[in-house]
Design brief:
The structure is a homodimer. Chain A is built from 10 helices and 12 strands. Chain A is of the alpha/beta class. In chain A, the strands form 3 sheets. Chain A has a 7-stranded mixed beta sheet, with helices on both faces. Chain A has a 3-stranded antiparallel beta sheet with strand order 10-11-12, with helices on one face. The interface between A and B is large, with 72 and 72 residues.
Chain lengths: 327, 327
């Protein structure tokens, strides 16, 4: 039986990657710290505040509220939970494009809200008119995706914001994977581009932090307040996170990755990943595959999906294409 | 600003501890693996299966269903979620003793179920008659705690199982902290002692695994089935965990700690922790504090609470008592 960690030399479809060396080192040092208990573990709590500040910079938000979550599923679930808790409706619903990550299905089950999935347009992006048709006075949240899981599509966030405002709902942007490449591409997707209320942006995907390091951001503290549960503890009397004890490795790793890579290192990751994606798309196209144009570093072609993460080299892609040729 | 991880030499009230050296080493190696994607990361998925098997041994369950969760909050939430999803009631409720961990409050908010808290008896244990008075045909879950957060109390699990059966509810035991000391103490608390349906037992507390390593166990696969959400992936088509991407460090660390310590290492931890707790209780009592007798390695006295975790030495407790004397 194989008892070794995964070697990334053949991993072409994961949204996780090899952590940055400084992030790995920081994670190892803080393995036993619990940012969920900031009184006992103040150093890691301070690293979390700094990480959230930098995530705000990346997403165009000057005074971000939020925290380093266990991952994108938690962050998406918390966005739905806050919207549900803030909604006046007795039977709140969420409207998302059908390209949304399946964590919204999970959130709908956990939180007992109705999830309405709107068809996407010909380029696989959310169709604001279709979203509008499904939204009504019971809609608590409209979801847009900035970098879809399957094809890396960026939904028209400003138009979705208009839909959300029309029905008095919050707007959540899921940039779990896309958030670390979009600052270098030409899309309107962040808090500064539109009245976005909450966002998911995961350092442990394109951010090169070790697992578990998701990011949940909110423009207003009312959103965090809607998540708060009282604790029986003397020094920290409330908690807005979904989990209790949390990973110091994730928080310290995220902080170290952000410090080492924002912005120039992430720009290089994006440039290299995008060039690799375009090279692969061309190689597949010339072999007769139906390739979806990679607007971000993901190449989809039929059942194939290659995510051009930082560990994916041109050599790996050349081998992959050679393997296809030999089939 | 302090940028160093917490040193455990003065930590007396945390339920986390210094990981076992082998657990730390395994966690560091598997930092970039994702047990949430068993097809891409098969080795860590196999470590998780073995860890769950050992957790079953510790809790008296021959063929355990379950997984390594992010922590006790997730495990408790999943127990409530499964019970809610399996319930016929349109308005399900959960009945727990008022000594239950505040994660049940969080679960009630997230899952939109009614949480009914029953008063405890004079020894701070759940009172089955009081629990029975709050339970009704809408009760989906009865909760018992095996090692309470404040005083280490073990609820009368077999009697709570009778209450659960009387109202056709599931029974959950929260042994998040207590599960690694109770095998060596004389209580009826586990799957073999009573018809317990689900249990929380956290390797990252008394189990000496690094964070994040909680444990969620179920007797029947119907419970896991009630948590399943379909995924769009080719090879693993469903997911019962609350989070999506999960920590390889937590899983590999838990597996390594369990392999190194079960049963003899955990017995030594218990013996030393219990002896320390009794020594401290006596020292505080002789100084006039109102001490609650430590039935497990936690000492409560008024606002004071000392958790005799594996990193807590007699010398630390002597210094603590000397500090109290000098106040």
């Amino acid at each position: 039986m194989n008892r070794e960690p995964q070697v990334f030399g053949r991993v072409l479809s994961s949204m996780c990657t090899k952590p940055h060396p400084e992030a790995r080192e920081a994670a190892q040092r803080f393995l036993a710290d619990n940012p969920g208990d900031p009184t006992t573990y103040p150093a890691v709590a301070e690293l979390e505040r700094k990480a959230v500040e930098t995530l705000g910079e990346i997403t165009g938000l000057a005074d971000p509220e939020g925290y380093v979550a266990s991952g994108g599923t938690e962050a998406n679930l918390q966005a739905v939970r806050a919207a549900r808790n803030l909604s006046d409706s007795a039977d709140p619903n969420v409207v998302a494009p059908e390209s949304a990550h399946f964590s919204f299905q999970k959130a709908a089950d956990v939180l007992d809200v109705d999830l309405r999935l709107a068809p996407v347009d010909d380029d696989r992006r959310a169709d604001p008119a279709a979203v509008r048709r499904l939204a009504d006075e019971d809609t608590a949240l409209v979801v847009g995706v900035a970098g879809t899981t399957e094809y890396g599509r960026v939904d028209p966030i400003p138009e979705l914001a208009e839909v959300a405002q029309a029905v008095d709902a919050l707007l959540h942007v899921d940039a779990a994977w896309g958030g670390f490449v979009l600052p270098f591409a030409d899309w309107e997707w962040n808090f500064d581009h539109a009245p976005v209320d909450t966002m998911t942006i995961d350092p442990h995907k394109m951010g090169r932090a070790p697992i578990p390091a998701g990011g949940f951001l909110a423009r207003d503290e009312t959103v965090l307040d809607a998540l708060v549960v009282d604790t029986p503890y003397l020094e920290s009397t409330s908690q807005a996170t979904l989990t209790g004890t949390r990973s110091g490795a994730g928080v310290a790793g995220a902080h170290a990755a952000l410090s080492a890579l924002w912005p120039e290192g992430y720009r290089e990751n994006y440039d290299r990943g995008q060039a690799n994606a375009e090279w692969l798309a061309e190689a597949l196209d010339s072999r007769g595959y139906e390739v979806v144009e990679p607007v971000l570093p993901i190449v989809g072609a039929g059942e194939l999906r290659v995510v051009c993460m930082p560990h994916v080299t041109r050599e790996m892609l050349e081998e992959f294409v050679a393997d296809l040729d030999s089939l």
